[in-house]
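Deviation from plan, reported transparently: zinc ion complex.
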Amino acid sequence: PQTIYLKDYQPFGFEIDKVHLTFRLNPEKTRVISRIVFRPNPEAEERDFFLHGEELDLIWAKIDGAEVTPILEDGGLRCAVPERAFTWEAEVEINPEANTALEGLYMSNGMYCTQCEAEGFRKITYYPDRPDVMAPFEVRIEGDEKVKLSNGNPGASGDGFAEWHDPWPKPAYLFALVAGDLVNHPDRFETMSGRDVELNIWVRPGDEGKCAFGMEALKASMRWDEDVYGREYDLDIFNIVAVDDFNMGAMENKGLNIFNSSCVLASPETSTDGNFERVEAIIAHEYFHNWTGNRITCRDWFQLCLKEGLTVFRDAQFTSDMRSEPVKRISDVIALRARQFCEDNGPLAHPVRPESFVEINNFYTATVYEKGAEVIGMLKTLVGDEAYAKALDLYFERHDGDAATIEDWLRVFEDTTGRDLSQFKRWYEQAGTPRVKVRDTYKDGTFTLHLEQSTPPTPGQDVKDARVIPIAIGLLAPNGNEVVPTQVLEMTQANQSFVFEGLASRPVPSILRGFSAPVILERESDNAERAFLLAHDTDPFNKWEAGRALARDGLLAMIRNGAGPDDAYLDAIEAVARDDNLDPAFRALALGLPSQEDLAQSLYEAGDTPDPQAIWDALETLKQAQAQKMQDLATRLYAQYQVDEPYAPNAEQSGARALANAALGMISRVDGGALAQKQYDNADNMTQQLAALSCLLKAGKGAAAVTAFYDQWKHDRLVIDKWFSLQILQADPDDAAEVTQILTNHPDFTMKNPNRFRATLGALTMNTAGFHHVSGVGYGVLADWLIKLDPINPQTTARMCTAFETWKRYDETRQEMAARALDRILAQPELSRDTTEMVTRIRG
Ligand code: B3K
Ligand code: ZN
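Because the crystal trials were delayed, the predicted structure below was used instead.
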């Protein structure tokens, strides 16, 4: 397969004035007739008329009305064309029913739907399928389906047809079409300039009752983008469609967002608090793309972080505003460390702006998205809120309608602030997580921090240059008072010292407040200092971080030398949990422990070979000790934080439930599941029901509830996904692979639905000790199923291969078995390009 390089970018030889598409829908034989007006692109040096096309049956093609015979090639066609504007027309036949890859036009439960990002439009018709070719689209859909949707504003419609006009030039990846017997949840929105917009969420009949929350989230997002970024919606209608079979979360097609039904449908009975928050965030994310992604798109796919990093950053700001800023920040950092740090420290490490790829779908990664958002957060911290707002205004003004680059993005900040951002740009160019080593000295009232940064080599990048790292810091006096409030140190050198004068006594530093940079801080610290920060830090993130570090150190000692649970940690965390002045959601987070993956990474980083079973054992021992020690407190918290009002998925109620359910987790380890059973029997919402089920499974008392749960929910596919996952997640490591195998034999298991596949095999990969079981059975089961899935759905297969990305951390036995599993996948004849690239990179 061919590698594509950023450095080889060339503009397309033609521009497009106008696109007209007619779809004659048929499940197996859909006809697509295109009429496209091209003109030579004055900016381009080459005039090679190559149109992408895959899995298309060309019926005929014409230029200016005269039939032509293009040369069909691998991945597209070539044709001789005039050296002036001309009209290209073509008719192709495609087979949506056979499209199990869920890319291009496909069918989901009898409904037509599309997914074109990144390069799926070429499976719909011949076209320059690249993001820098933008054009207004007119679409005519012919078919008997009740509802027929495409991008833009509705045009004429009648018996068996519907027309849509999208006036805003867009790249083909933002094209969408949906047709089926759908029902809508309608609403309206008045924009800041007083325009009236029709809003709809389209769903399968039966799902109408799960739309209200998503609709409120949409309106809140629209208002927020006006208030905070001054961005108004720009069409007469905004449609969201829920689809069951979808490779990812959702897609921001212009005016017609298509969602994985799990990311838009929500009701108290069927969705957890976490699901509600996710739905709200994803609706916001896709909506925000209208400006950051659609109006301003990417020149090429190397610039993906331009839209994704920025849009993730914006949706995080939105969630912070709607809910709790510290809770959102802490949750994001937990996720960043779990997913992105793992990626950045393994064989798949790549820069936020990659320099090459084989299959672009493999680069929709935590690095591009989440680290891409962190980079923007750092930029904002460095230039300040006001300059950030000005730079964004300039970005929208200067680049509206453009397919832009990271250079364009950075230039608006340079032009706004006069700053030179060439060093900052390394965040986009260098892969790997920087380590920042911190030492401090104190003498005669002067406190000095000595910082040293370094980034380990990553594939293809052996040497790294020093980056600009914003390090937010505050200093606390020994009595707990803050003597130096938060300020941002700008580290630009590999070694750098910062001096604080006039301190009456040696302060305790609170470093990297708010997690001001995505780095690994290395600092010798003791339990006493951590407990002090946990008790006194005014920065909620670092307060949480201190507790996390205490927990981690204690766990590492348990794993390494069989130490018992650390009393310093248990006492300190109990004090936090007890403190009713603290937000319950924060306390629930503070009661959490580092993940198995986190601990494995810490051990590996320190030169040890992590033993997944030992990690699991240590976590269990600590949780048991915590449960025993905090029995009284858990009982008190459980009672105190029961929510009496009717269920609402807001931050306040969710926080209370999170804390009460954390307490239930502790209680269940002591009472054998009695209280959990009671909660299960009385639950009137999914948050309570699922938390109780999870405790029952953990206590080994889940059998009856598992059956009851299935009977209650067998009609609801999204809830049944939870039923599949939870049984695997809660299985003991020794049983996880077997439970997975058994569930894959369940009549409701299917490989064709990515949600169900992820709920099952994905859950196995999240049962860390089970997946990395010393018998190798976890690796084997996953490899077997990935081999089966690849011919059906390469994208989802490739994505799930990342479960193997940490294989080199482990002992020889495990490494050998993982290598065998990877080689077995790689040896499949006809393995997809997606999976080949991923497994090759992981194998190293
Ligand atoms: N832009 C899409 C992701 C497309 C993934 C293609 N493999 C969703 C999002 O980030 O909003
Ligand atoms: Zn996005």
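Residues 540-561 form the longest helix (22 residues). We consider this an acceptable substitute for the interim report.
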